[in-house]
């Protein structure tokens, strides 16, 4: 990674910002150009400490803006493009699908095109482009492109992992469990069901098309649900933390029995770093740490964690906007289910483990604790990202359902 120049799009958002922080803490000599449109989900405050106008440059703009991208590629000899920029919330895609197609599909295609133009140095005898050395485009995708898995077990069963290398990465974990027998593999058919996942799937197809048709050096990562610091409080985990601290009701879709596979955001950043540097060109890598949990169990775990932290650390009481006694499961309120709500996601990470030696470092309960503590200590960040628009959106999604 030494002396590499990265163009990281969408890095004022949750995962992109965590990725940039991870890269800067791990490597000296890298230069990062951040391109972000600063939608409601992008917050410049998240990366202010990193931006220095020299090693880390921030440019406000749209991945769909060809002129701007050409200008960026002219200014900097970019080595790696990492595309996080996206509309990322399923609920919003149900309200306004078109914006998702605009950014996630057309924006990605524009970014690919500008990248290709900038990196070409000639043609081979068959007419395929030849690219400058050491370049790579990485598309940050999602496990949601695979669709929904069946939830076969109402109560989770112990998970048996057959592969020895994969068994190694989860060694010592007592919480290995699963709600079904099938998992998402890279070879599965893509079967998206929401406007969000359909737009991400289309983007994946176009990325692969640029590899097949123009031999553009690409990788795609498909990760499970992330959680951690700087997560916008419209998503489940930060929303539940925020509402619990305010003593507000905790909205849970349907019966709360949908299963997601959770990964601490830094473990995702580590995977992207590995794939950028060592991933085989043209390959897709699934990223996930065998961490299935139902939404309702997560909500209950967050309530317990906040309560325990408050009881043992009185300094956190300044973040409480309610009486400590009010923090319990009675805050949970079941609301009408999301349309087309996928039942279960579960990643098989065998390929990235065996090929690249990736492994997740943060067990779920530790990660949740770290995340809750981060929110307790960064209330100002939360206040700064929730504007009047957030409140309007929140009322529309959860009140009167
Ligand atoms: N959050 C998850 O659990 C998860 C899991 C797997 C994959 N992903 C994927 O990872 C990526 C990042 O997710 P996130 O949760 O950090 O999203 P996010 O919504 O927090 O951040 C998205 C960022 O992209 C920016 N953006 C949006 N449209 C843009 C445009 N047209 N041009 C430039 N910037 C634009 C926003 O301002 C924001 O900063 C997304 O592509 C998402 O599909 C997310």
Describe the structure.
The chain has 13 helices and 16 strands. With 401 residues, it is an alpha/beta fold. The protein has a domain at 1-147 and 184-223: NAD(P)-binding Rossmann-like Domain (Rossmann fold, 3-Layer(aba) Sandwich). Helix 1 links the parallel strand 1 (5-9) and strand 2.
List the helices and strands and how they pair.
Elements lengths: L4 E5 L4 H13 L4 E6 L19 E5 L5 H10 L4 E4 L6 H6 L1 H23 E4 L5 E3 L4 E7 L14 E2 L5 H6 L7 E2 L16 H20 L3 E6 L1 E3 L8 H11 L3 E4 L5 E6 H14 L5 E4 L4 E3 H18 L19 E4 L14 H7 L7 H14 L1 H7 L2 H11 L3
Parallel strand pairs: 1-2, 1-4, 2-3, 4-7, 7-10, 10-14, 11-13, 12-16
Antiparallel strand pairs: 5-6, 8-9, 13-15
Helix pairs in contact: 1-8, 2-4, 4-6, 7-9, 9-11
The structure holds nicotinamide-adenine-dinucleotide (NAD).
State the gist of this model:
The chain is built from 13 helices and 16 strands. With 401 residues, it is of the alpha/beta class. The strands form five sheets. The chain has a seven-stranded parallel beta sheet, sandwiched between helices. A three-stranded mixed beta sheet has the order 11-13-15. A two-stranded antiparallel sheet has the order 5-6.
